[in-house]
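Give me structure tokens for this 225-residue protein.
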Amino acid sequence: MSTIPNFLREPEWHVDIVMCLDATGSMHHVIDKVCDNALCLHQKLKDFMFEHDRELKGLRVKVILFRDYGIDAEPMVETEFFNITDGEDDQSGDFHDFIRSVRAGGGGDRPENALEALTFALRSDWTRLGTHRRHIVLLCTDAPALPLGARSDSDCYPADMPKDLEELSKIWEEDMDRRAKRIFLYAPYEEPWDRLEMWTQCFHCDMDSYDKFDFDECLRMMSFS
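Here you go.
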């Protein structure tokens, strides 16, 4: 084990990104653009970090597709982390195959189970590698979210969900790595997304701007923050 202090080492940036994507029918007009942007994450992040004299040593990406526990047979799909590298353990092909398979469909009324997806994201097995880390949650939806527990009478609803938004915020504020964590919300300015803006290191982009939708701004912020 190396005994060199972190401040004397060459910076090693390792980034985990968990993408929480609304996959309900109302997203049909924008889901392809979301997925196209997801496929460019690796190269764009490398380029933006290079602009700030930072070398990306490791990138992992996980995807969580969410719908509605009260309506859909498969309300939540969660992948493992895909290693997106230039080495032998590269899983970018598997990641690309999964992203290309995403189709918008299902869902009931406008609010969806986005907060449950966010809970799964925060509980991810985040990387501990490198001298510098980023633990990124990128959530995309065109709708408000159902309150936590609103679908708890569903047979497939998870038993260990937070009981409300305050309890979820404690996971973010107390359990996550303070220096590494970031949330980027592509969501309307509606409940509860307007309240999440109060969370530490949470950035809100209005999902109504479909014609301008891309991840470039959040990737830039990841690169220099």
